Amino acid sequence: MTALHVFQRPDTSEPITSLTAFDDISAFLAQAGIVLERWDISGVDKDSTSERLLAQFHDPIEALKKREGYQSADVISLTPDHKDRLALREKFLQEHTHSEDEVRLFVHGSGTFFVPVADQVVKLECHAGDLLRVPANTAHWFDGGEYPDFVAIRIFTNPQGWVGHLTGGDTFY
Ligand SMILES: [Fe+2]
Prior knowledge:
Elements: E1 3-8, E2 17-19, H1 22-30, E3 35-38, H2 50-56, H3 58-68, E4 72-78, H4 85-92, E5 96-97, E6 102-117, E7 120-127, E8 130-134, E9 141-143, E10 150-156, E11 165-166
Antiparallel strand pairs: 1-2, 1-7, 3-8, 4-10, 5-11, 6-7, 6-8, 6-9, 6-10
The structure holds fe (ii) ion (FE2).
């Protein structure tokens, strides 16, 4: 289930606030300019090809692209036995920004985003059906876990320009 926890730095051992109701989570994130929507993922086969998944969500993705100026979409998939899972985890765990929105629709499994807001850190556990839009230039990091297991559609303004700019900020998970 989608969940949000807020940590007050410097003590990141226990959250000061936890939310599990989707509408509460969505409203909380909206204050930070982050969009969380629930999309209908019924009928998704996680073992589908990328082409088939993109075709399945063609209409809502095209509507989102048109509305927000996004240009393209692809599929990222990580499995618990991925040979580079540990290196990828370390990479994503570094705090970074992008010069464009980070847009993810989880169609299988889960992953956790962390977004520092002033002296607090928002930890968002995303699950299948969650569409997340983190605005451009917002510092964040991501943890797929020691044994990642998710499939997500990524939507880009400019996939060639989609790189992480490391901020050097302290992270935890
Ligand atoms: Fe990112």
